[in-house]
Specification:
CATH superfamily of the largest domain: Periplasmic binding protein-like II
Shape: elongated
Order of helices and strands: EHEHEEEEHEHEEHH
Number of domains: 2
Distance between the termini: 32 Å
Number of helices: 6
Strand content: 25-35%
CATH topology of the largest domain: D-Maltodextrin-Binding Protein, domain 2
Radius of gyration: 20 Å
Strand order of the largest sheet: 2-1-3-9-4
CATH class of the largest domain: Alpha Beta
Oligomer: single chain
């Protein structure tokens, strides 16, 4: 006699670009939906649109700008831009810098292994959101705010044509809705029918 097939545990897959922390939201998700696994995956910023289009993730914490055709977007917060440098770099002695202070340096914006190597030997400066520098912290690097650089914006994105009802639940958590919100209650009632 064969065993009946086991129903796999439902999963909501969420992507996030470097520097984004989802601990608060994933904790709330675990409390409200203990039977639905939340899988959070790292997404390279250059891939943020593609992973949504391909359905590899249902939602993604993205860094703007992004082509938003066919996507819903909720802007969440702005990030401080920083100069991320070797501790031996002149910028390390300052409390903050301007773009003019970096004019003589090669300024890179993508923290690839090659770029990080260039920074470590003093050949370049990385201009990145503070969250990226903080999340990849190194003892031999420091970061300083760039006071006149435009901030970056983190947003939550998902496809307009995605029928997944759990998206609305996760989006509600991110927006701060309570477990008893009429929107989330209605969505749960539709799923239970």
């Amino acid at each position: 006699m064969s065993e009946p097939p086991v129903n796999p545990r439902p999963t909501l897959r969420v992507g996030k670009v470097p520097g984004v922390t989802v601990t608060k939201w994933s904790g709330i998700w675990a409390e409200r939906f203990p039977r639905v696994r939340l899988e959070v995956v790292d997404v390279d910023e250059r891939e943020q649109r593609r992973v949504l289009e391909a359905g590899e993730v249902a939602l993604c914490f993205v860094r703007l700008p992004i082509d938003d055709e066919g996507l819903h977007l909720i802007r969440l917060y702005e990030e401080v831009p920083v100069a991320w440098v070797s501790k031996d770099h002149l910028v390390a002695a300052a409390d903050e810098v301007t773009l003019a202070d970096l004019a003589g340096d090669e300024v890179l914006t993508d923290p690839t292994p090659h770029a990080i190597d260039m920074v470590s030997i003093g050949e370049a400066v990385l201009a990145v959101p503070q969250s990226v520098a903080r999340s990849q912290s190194r003892r031999d690097f420091v970061y300083r705010p760039i006071t006149d650089a435009p901030p970056t914006t983190v947003a939550l994105a998902w496809r307009k044509d995605d029928p997944e009802e759990l998206i609305e639940e996760f989006m509600g958590i991110v927006r701060g809705r309570t477990a008893n919100s009429s929107r989330t209650t209605q969505a749960r009632a539709r799923r239970q029918r």
